[in-house]
């Protein structure tokens, strides 16, 4: 896909990795639509506009099915990146129904509903959906029960829709490794986290953003679950 003049919609695009993905695609020539809920998208939009492309934002609570109608203002979308996510720590014994439902609603149902809403707007010969997973979707992290189940199911959704939407729409997933500290994480904990990777160092959000760009530009990849994790999966199988 030639990215110049294309339109990319990034959920959770106002902050953290989603923001870097939006900026990277903008630098490649994409007009950007940033989905956000409580986060302020103005900073990301300002940086996107510096690339000489257009940036718009849509505020929507992805847990509310009625809010998806807000995306009907869009005319055409070439790339959908489902980056919005929640990350709850829980296990079988202490997980609450509220946390279980929130993990599945945001991490699994929201990407599904976004695809249902946006796929009809993908009118070119090559369009792309990228779903963000993480290591909990590949391995049974016992202290991230609901989160892991939601991400594992998202991998399955990725593969099913890759078959269903081919040949004109490709669907792939990315599994980021430790590229950003979670809010409130201690430095020592962070060092232990990235110390469990093969490369023994943290990644950068740009590693994830460049992987999205790669999947957009390479039009012969679909149904792929691309690990960009510094070898985290290899060391923790």
What is the tally of helical segments? Answer: 7
Q: What's the CATH topology name? A: Rossmann fold
What characteristic shape results from the CA principal axes? globular
Regions with pLDDT < 50 over 5+ consecutive residues? none
Write the element-wise H/E pattern from the N-terminal end onward. Answer: EHEHEEHEHEHHEH
Largest sheet: 7 strands, parallel
Counting DSSP E segments of at least 2 residues, the number of strands comes to: 7
CATH architecture: 3-Layer(aba) Sandwich
Decide which structural class fits the backbone: alpha/beta
Mean pLDDT: 96
From the alpha carbons, calculate the radius of gyration and give it in angstroms: 17 Å
> Largest beta sheet: what is the strand line-up?
3-2-1-4-5-6-7
Please bin the fraction of helical residues. Answer: 25-40%
Key traits:
alpha/beta, seven-stranded parallel sheet, 237 residues, Rossmann fold
Account of the protein in words:
The protein is α/β, with parallel strands linked by helices and 237 residues long. It has one domain: 3-Layer(aba) Sandwich (Rossmann fold). The protein is built from 7 helices and 7 strands. It has a 7-stranded parallel sheet, sandwiched between helices. Helix 2 links the parallel strand 2 and strand 3. Helix 1 packs parallel to helix 2 and helix 3 packs parallel to helix 4. The longest helix has 22 residues. The radius of gyration is 17 Å and the shape is globular. The relative contact order is 0.15. The mean pLDDT is 96.
């Amino acid at each position: 896909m030639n990215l110049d003049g294309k339109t990319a919609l990034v959920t959770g695009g106002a902050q953290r990795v989603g923001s870097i993905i939006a900026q990277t695609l903008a630098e490649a020539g994409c007009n950007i639509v940033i989905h956000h809920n409580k986060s302020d998208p103005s900073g990301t939009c300002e940086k996107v506009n510096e690339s000489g492309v257009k940036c718009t934002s849509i505020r929507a609570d992805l847990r509310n099915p009625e809010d998806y109608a807000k995306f009907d203002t869009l005319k055409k979308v070439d790339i959908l990146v489902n980056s919005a996510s929640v990350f709850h720590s829980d296990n079988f014994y202490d997980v609450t129904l509220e946390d279980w439902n929130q993990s599945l609603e945001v991490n699994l149902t929201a990407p599904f509903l976004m695809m249902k809403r946006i796929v009809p707007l993908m009118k070119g010969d090559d369009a792309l959906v990228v779903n963000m997973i993480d290591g909990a979707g590949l391995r049974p992290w016992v202290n991230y029960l609901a989160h892991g189940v939601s991400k594992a199911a998202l991998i399955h959704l990725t593969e099913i829709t890759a078959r269903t939407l081919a040949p004109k729409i490709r669907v792939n997933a990315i599994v980021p490794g430790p590229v950003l500290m979670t809010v409130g994480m201690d430095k020592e904990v962070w060092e232990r986290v990235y110390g469990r990777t093969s490369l023994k160092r943290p990644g950068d959000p740009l590693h994830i953003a460049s992987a999205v760009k790669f999947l957009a530009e390479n039009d012969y990849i679909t149904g792929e679950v691309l690990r960009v994790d510094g070898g985290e999966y290899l060391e923790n199988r």
